[in-house]
């Protein structure tokens, strides 16, 4: 009964809509978010759902060098607008709009957008003043990967490695681990989005909580992936709860498939989708790389936390996971090698670029984990087949799991790092120009 009540509470929390805010909301603007204009505008117009008052520096328009090209903004109460004139005719280039307005409830609302004149508008994550990913974001991304391993990886281990019927203690540990991982995926994902928004908006926390996040959520690959992944993982978590209520393995398979499927949002919004020269093949390779990593790491953690305390499960679970891990690591290495070749234009980029340095650390960790797994397969597996109980292997599993989690940390840093620039195509020769 207590389990059912808790499950209903979790499902209600996932389905409940957020309460409405009373502060002013930006409804439309000119230039529009991410709009590419052919001609320079003469003013900036921001329209809200209620009258607003202008505050000092209410509208700032920054060129690529960070120079403000906007005049003092005025509030037009009848039209519920803020209007700011622009100094002269703006030259071709990309521009950032940062605005602040006092709404009728006394809160200062803020926002950001970009537009281009004769050039595509950059995403707000690359707006003037945005610093890009920070060390804190690297740690949060790593926690996100770990949470995915505990959520999707644990479900995969339960379905692919463990028998359908388990001792009650093992089943209980599985659901505690996977449910904790699923909740962490949602919460850490929200934190990652807020940190990226905070960097783009460049606001103190008091103002940030009333910031307009729509340009980031709707106007960037990162924001669109965040929304889709949050909804998808929430549904996967709901299916996991249904499995916890005793509705069989089908909800678990649904949660597993959804979890792996929506993990592709990271591949569709990262380097494999946005960098020059990338294609559906690089997106697929990145997704296979990530999926193999979370199943491998999640399986190692489950082997240590779920199986090893239960002597009667050790042998079969270890041998089955050893076979699966061999395939997962092979896919991880193949996809990682392809992506490394794609993202590093030259071999010397491995030791001459920051991206290459992190990649070398990741490769060394993967090699360590691979050697560790090889020892398990060549030494421990035969002992288990011969009837040994494996009582002394637990520390070794802890070590391999720690190395695998460190691989995820290196992967998190790589995800937020910019690869070396691709070489520019050679200029056309005089003969080619003559043929034109």
Describe the structure.
Helix content is 59%, strand content 12%. By secondary structure, it is of the alpha+beta class. It folds into two domains: 97 residues, Immunoglobulin-like (Sandwich), CATH 2.60.40.1220; 281 residues. The protein is elongated and about 85 Å long.
Structure, briefly:
By secondary structure, the chain is α+β, with helices and mostly antiparallel strands.
Count every helix, treating DSSP H or I runs of 4 or more residues as helices.
Answer: 15
Spell the H/E element sequence: HEEEEEEEEHHHHHHHHHHHHHH
Q: What is the global morphology?
A: elongated
First-to-last CA distance: 80 Å
Describe the largest sheet.
4 strands, antiparallel
Count of spatially separate domains: 2
Overall residue-averaged pLDDT value: 81
Structural class: alpha+beta
The residue ranges in which pLDDT falls below 50 over 5 or more consecutive positions are: 15-21, 430-434
Count the E strands. 8
Neighbour order of strands in the largest sheet: 1-3-6-5
Helix content: 55-70%
């Amino acid at each position: 009964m207590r389990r059912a009540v808790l499950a209903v509470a979790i499902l209600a929390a996932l389905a409940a809509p957020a309460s409405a805010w009373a502060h002013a909301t930006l409804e439309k603007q000119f230039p529009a978010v991410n709009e590419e204009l052919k001609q320079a505008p003469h003013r900036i117009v921001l329209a809200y759902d209620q009258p607003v008052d202008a505050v000092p520096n209410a509208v700032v328009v920054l060129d690529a060098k960070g120079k403000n090209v906007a005049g003092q903004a005025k509030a037009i109460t009848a039209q519920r607008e803020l209007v700011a004139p622009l100094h002269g005719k703006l030259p071709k280039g990309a521009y950032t709009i940062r605005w602040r307005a006092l709404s009728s409830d006394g809160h200062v609302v803020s926002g950001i957008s970009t537009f281009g004149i004769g050039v595509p508008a950059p995403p707000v994550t690359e707006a003037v003043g945005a610093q890009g990913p920070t060390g804190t974001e690297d740690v949060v991304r790593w926690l996100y990967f770990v949470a995915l391993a505990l959520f999707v990886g644990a479900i995969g281990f339960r379905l692919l490695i463990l028998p359908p019927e388990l001792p009650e203690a093992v089943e209980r540990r599985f659901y505690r681990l996977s449910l904790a991982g699923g909740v962490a995926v949602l919460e850490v994902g929200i934190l990652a989005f807020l940190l990226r928004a905070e960097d783009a908006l460049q606001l103190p926390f008091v103002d940030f909580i009333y910031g307009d996040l729509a340009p980031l959520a709707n106007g960037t690959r990162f924001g669109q992936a965040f929304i889709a992944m949050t909804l998808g993982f929430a549904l996967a978590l709901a299916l996991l709860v249904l499995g916890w209520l005793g509705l069989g393995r089908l909800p678990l398979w649904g949660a597993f498939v959804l979890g792996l499927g929506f993990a592709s949002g990271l591949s569709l919004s990262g380097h494999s989708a946005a960098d020059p020269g990338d294609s559906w093949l690089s997106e697929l390779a990145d997704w296979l790389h990530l999926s193999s990593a979370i199943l491998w790491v999640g399986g190692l953690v489950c082997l240590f936390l779920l199986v090893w305390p239960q002597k009667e499960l050790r042998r079969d679970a270890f041998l089955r996971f050893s076979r699966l891990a061999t395939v997962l690591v092979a896919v991880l290495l193949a996809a990682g090698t392809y992506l490394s070749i794609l993202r590093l234009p030259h071999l010397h980029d491995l030791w001459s670029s920051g991206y290459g340095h992190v990649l070398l650390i990741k490769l060394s960790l993967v090699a360590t984990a691979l050697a560790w797994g090889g020892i398990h397969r060549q030494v421990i597996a035969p002992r288990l087949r011969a009837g040994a109980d494996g009582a002394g292997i637990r520390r070794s599993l802890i070590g391999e799991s720690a190395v695998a989690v460190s691989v995820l940390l290196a992967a998190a840093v790589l995800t937020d790092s910019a690869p070396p620039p691709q070489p520019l195509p050679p200029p056309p020769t005089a003969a080619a120009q003559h043929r034109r």
